Amino acid sequence: MHFIFATNAFLDPIVNGITAILNAINSVVHSRGWSLVIFALGFKLISWPLNTKQFMSMIKMQKLAPQMKALQAKYAKSDPQRYQKETMELYKREGANPLAGCWPMLVQYPIIISVYYAVWAHKDLYKNEHWLWVGAPFTDHVAPLLWKAYLFAPNLAAADIVLLLLYAISMYFYSRYATMPSADPQQAQTQKLMAIFSPLMLGFLGLRYNWPSAMVLYWFSYNLFTMGQQFYLLGKYHQPLSALDDFHALTDLPDDAKTKALPKANGEVAGQQRGGSRRNKKKKRGARR
Question: Please, which residues bridge with residue 131 across strands?
Fold first, then answer.
């Protein structure tokens, strides 16, 4: 898919715009490595509303999972047309849109891919650039290990195994803890496998094709900022991560955990009665007295 975009002039203005922004940031901070980190942070802040809408849409779809599962059991095999009709009526009645969780990512995807080409097209600019350990003095004595990739790259134009490894680890932890759990046990199992195999595949491709460490640095930074936003949204609209993660489907959780996993409404956890909060307030007042 990356190569399809590469042959399409649609991305050229985006790539040129990103290059200009990176150059402008670099003129202030005088570091192309930190320019990529700052750009990743800025892009994440700009796309924050889109990601929040995506998150809320996923929560809404998750709340409908038990009803959808009941419709599937009742009509999916015996009357597929009735099943589709009832499903669409459920979406309409509850104001849910199964595609709403996808389009924010489709909007951001061209930007993420354009950074790849912005770095690759100006790879020479990163040959004399460094970032933290990348390009540090001791890297002058480090030789390539695999497919011309360095354990510690001498510059941001070379492949850095440590940085690539950190990116793969961040991908795993993002999939493990910061993604919405599936309501389908089979899909939850698929997510579990993808959380393991996707980082391994990315690590192999990065080593095999010598991805510049500058590009990996941007993806790693963006991934960290995305995880930060996801943890924030989970804490605000969901129960603690210890009760729920992508390795367990929502339908597999105990009844009390399912209740806790539902979104908070009006600042309260679903299933928590107002009377309980009032009793707690009375207890606190009595303790003060």
Answer: 134
Helix (H, G, I), strand (E, B) or coil at 36: helix
Domain count of the chain? 1
Cβ proximity of 133 and 139 under 8 Å: yes
pLDDT at position 261 is 41
Residue 88, exposed/middle/buried by CB under 10 A (0-12, 13-18, 19+)? exposed
Q: In whole angstroms, give the CA distance from residue 207 to residue 204.
A: 5
Those residues whose C-beta lies under 8 Å from the C-beta of residue 243, and which sit 6 or more positions away, are 253, 257, 260, 261
The alpha carbon of residue 200 and the mean position of all alpha carbons in its chain are separated, in whole angstroms, by: 17
CA 153 – CA 213 distance, rounded (Å): 8
How many angstroms separate the most distant Cα atoms in the chain? 74
Q: Which tokens is 77 given?
A: 């095999």
Residue 148, in any domain of the structure: yes
Residues ≥6 apart with Cβ < 8 Å to 13: none
Residue 246 has pLDDT above 70, yes or no: no
CB 214 within 8 A of CB 154: no
Domain with 219, as residue range(s), is 2-272
Residue 277 lies in a domain: no
The pLDDT assigned to 7 comes to 44
Q: How far apart are CA 238 and CA 110, in angstroms?
A: 30
E-strand ranges in 52-168 read 144-146, 149-150
Tokens describing residue 17: 């715009």
Between 16 and 147, the higher pLDDT residue: 16
Helix, strand, or coil (residue 160)? strand
CA distance 75 to 77: 6
